[in-house]
Amino acid sequence: MMASIVPLLALAIAWLLWDKPLPDTVATHWSGTEPDGFSTTTTFLAIVGALCVVFAATAVGVTARTIATGRDCDSALWLPTAAVLSWTFASAAILSVSLTIAAGSAEEARLSWWIIVPLLSLAWGAGTYWVAPKGPAALITDSPKPENPIAASESAVWIAHVRNALAGWLAAATAGAALLMALIGEWWLAPFFVLLTIFGGMFASVTVQVDGRGLSLRSWGIRWRTISLDSITHAGVIDVRPAEWGGWGYRLGVRGTAVVVRAGEAIALERKDARPFVVTVDGAATGAALLNDLGALATD
Question: Which of 150, 159, 84, 158 is nearest to 118 (CA)?
């Protein structure tokens, strides 16, 4: 938790120590050691400060929830992420203003070896991960069996869809933001919002399919993830809380890999040579039962 608060405190202390008034403009983007991007100082500091507050609040919230519930809320994912982002943004802001003040103008500021400071966020995050509590892997509480097992000569396919309306609205919003950035001339930001639209929209609607090949996921009509049947030891059903997996979307955590589209029931796969794979979907028990049946047939 403190790993996300310390950078925020450093930013606040730096603001108190800077000579006033601050320059109207600061260098915020660099090409090598020379600045090639500038921002209004007040706006820049307000945005960075707000982001650092969000990162610190996230760390506090995860820690408080872990203490209150007695459950690890994926602290090993949330806390290092918040720490890395907090350090990166806070150190970048401190450097931008300090170097501008030292040079006398934003145009004359030089980054030099100070670039090392924001990069230390990786070490800061690694240290946070080292001390963060780490929960167990996904525990399968129910391994369903099919009511009517299929014969060796038969084939079966199970398809289900899981949707998240909020993800769809967010994808539409980021698409609008990409268009807006292009219209106002901020072309360098437009690709960022386009990528958010593509990857965010992937989780507005996900199709889960179980067949003789294993379990596969599709978005935008494109198959983008397949867990082969021969790599699955058994399938089960678990209850997923997004906060415990690091949020929504494609999650890589200490419990395993998860595709979290919404809270609730999910298919959980125990794999031979990899950590568990989880995907939230309606009718998870039916899909898991078919996987277990297909797996049993494949080994006979």
Answer: 84
Is 15 a domain residue?
A: yes
The stretch 43-68 carries a mean pLDDT of 90
Residue 53 phi, psi (nearest 5)? -65, -40
Distances (CA, A) of 228 to 211, 225, 269, 289: 10, 10, 11, 16
Q: What is the CATH number of the domain that holds 208?
A: 2.30.29
Beta bridge partners of 205: 163
Contact present, 252 and 239 (Cβ < 8 Å): no
**Cis ω for the linkage preceding 21 (within 30 of 0):** yes
Q: What is the mean pLDDT of residues 27-43?
A: 87
pLDDT in tens, 143-174: 788 777 887 778 899 999 999 988 888 889 99
Separation between Cα atoms, residue 124 and residue 57, nearest integer Å: 18
* Pair 212, 125 in one domain: no
- What is the number of structural domains in the chain? 2
pLDDT at 185: 78
Domain match, 21 and 119 both: yes
Q: What is the pTM of this model?
A: 0.61
pLDDT of residue 135: 59
Give residue 9's domain range.
2-131
H, E, C per residue of 33-72: CEEEEEEEHHHHHHHHHHHHHHHHHHHHHHHHHHHHHCCC
From the CA atom positions of the chain, what is the Rg in Å?
24
The CA-to-CA distance between both ends of the chain, in Å, stands at: 51
Task: Give 109-138 pLDDT, tens digit per residue.
Answer: 998 888 899 889 989 988 887 877 665 555
pLDDT of residue 129: 78
